[in-house]
Amino acid sequence: MRNIKLIIEYDGKEFNGWQKQANKLNIQGEIENAIKEITREKTELIASGRTDAGVHAIGQVANFKTNSKIPIEKIPIALNTKLKKSIRIKDATEVSERFHSRYNCKKKTYCYTINNSKYGSSIYRNMQCHIPEKLNVEKMKKALKFFVGEHDFKAFKASGGSTKGTIRTIYDAKIEIDKENIHIYLTGNGFLYNMVRIISGTLVDVGLEKIEPEYIEEILLSKDRKKAGRTLPAQGLCLMKVEY
Amino acid sequence: MRNIKLIIEYDGKEFNGWQKQANKLNIQGEIENAIKEITREKTELIASGRTDAGVHAIGQVANFKTNSKIPIEKIPIALNTKLKKSIRIKDATEVSERFHSRYNCKKKTYCYTINNSKYGSSIYRNMQCHIPEKLNVEKMKKALKFFVGEHDFKAFKASGGSTKGTIRTIYDAKIEIDKENIHIYLTGNGFLYNMVRIISGTLVDVGLEKIEPEYIEEILLSKDRKKAGRTLPAQGLCLMKVEY
Q1: How confident is the model at residue A161, as a pLDDT?
Q2: What domains, with CATH codes, occur in chain B?
Q3: How many CB atoms are located within 10 Å of the residue A68 CB?
Q4: Is the CB of residue B25 less than 8 Å away from at least one CB of chain A?
Q5: Between A and B, how many residue pairs show a Cβ–Cβ distance under 8 A?
Q6: 0.90 surpassed by complex ipTM
């Protein structure tokens, strides 16, 4: 059987998250239906991980198995023709039969976007979280460094979610400024439930000078969710890249 | 009477253009209603110019007169509280009673965005026009130079619209590349009906190597709309800045 790896971009605003659910519009179900239309086969589409309702992706990865003989270079356009415009298949490649999007994932990069202007944006409102109070970005950058490395991220995990353990490694973390927006990039070997949104919420507390950058270390060591900041809303989050 | 100048951002996708029309959602009407709610006065909001249905603005300018004593720094937040999230008042300043957003406008800057990836974007689909064929950007940059200066832009004007004459000056024109997107910026003393969208459509023909950059000069001199390219769709266009 052929194993097909897809790179997928989606507008999270339009869906109740990645995962298949009855009577709720979801990305997995939409793409599985499109695959069925072009291959005449029922298949399971395995993603690198679920994303919650409202969360976007520019580089989600998912794979499916098929006996269809459709040429690999025709797959993106064939699927895109069947899909809503809020989902785009950006690439398809044929991979070894053992390739598994979730189990083989080595690194993921997320971006959380904060609009730090006084009144927010109308055009980009569904792709960012608006924080009107001026944030101290230099302090946020300092705080971000404490997350890099292997840590127990228990304090930055929402209850729920089905992940093994709470130790994860962040390989890279950076903040980029683009006009009125603050983009927080995090690359790690895995992320706990709501971890990026809680880290971003805690960085907002640093930016507001409610806590000092050094306090991040204490929160990590405490393993106490109550010491970390609030969970920022889903619409600011985007899965940028998945590496294998 | 006080004269208040607003800077306005809006998501054009949600409206049938700037101008007030009965039974059609429009930006002017929405803001005039919000002004009435906060000042208790009926007023006319004068913009630097109309924008068509689907066209966005990051820096539209409009002014209105009022007897209300509401402090100037409270106006943006008061209006934003009344407005839909698809319109944001970004700033308000008090200006001389003679200031007129349309008559006093000296320069406008528009940006037209083309997504030049194979399959387009889901997240940004309402803020760009998708052209899947690879465009030769170097040739487009060369072509763009022919528009700079004072010219008769009759060949780049759609029928309709109520503008005086067809001679306009383009002060500055540039192309910026951002990942899979091509942003075409044009700054001029005024623009004819659909002028930016027709210029962008003609640049696409250059990018597709259907016409040579030098041919722009011939199109300008011909004053013949049929020689220029097609009008690209509204959703790729954004009014960036208005200068006085």
Answers
A1: 67
A2: 2-95 (3.30.70.580), 107-243 (3.30.70.660)
A3: 17
A4: no
A5: 60
A6: yes
